[in-house]
Amino acid sequence: MVLVIVGGLNWGLYVFGQYLVRSRLGWISILEKGLCLNSHGM
């Protein structure tokens, strides 16, 4: 029972970490695209 709970927590943390990394990378790429558009616009 305890192993199942610990395994579930580890899996949840892993999925949550992957989500944070992907969302952060997505924001970085969006910001980079915005900066590139601004520099080309000027």
Task: Explain what you see.
- With about 40 residues, this protein is mainly α.
- Helix content is about 95%, strand content about 0%.
- It contains one helix and no strands.
- The protein has one helix at about 1-40.
- The radius of gyration is 18 Å and the shape is rod-shaped.
pLDDT < 50 stretches: none
- Rg, alpha carbons: 18 Å
Average pLDDT, all residues: 84
Indicate the overall shape: rod-shaped
**By helix and strand content, what is the structural category?**
mainly alpha
Tally the helices.
1
Query: How many strands in all?
Result: 0
Order of helices and strands: H
Distance between the termini: 61 Å
Helix fraction, binned, reads: over 70%
Summarize the entry for a quick read.
The protein is mainly alpha-helical and 42 residues long.
Main attributes of the structure:
42 residues, mainly alpha, 0% strand
Topology of this structure?
Blueprint: H1 2-41
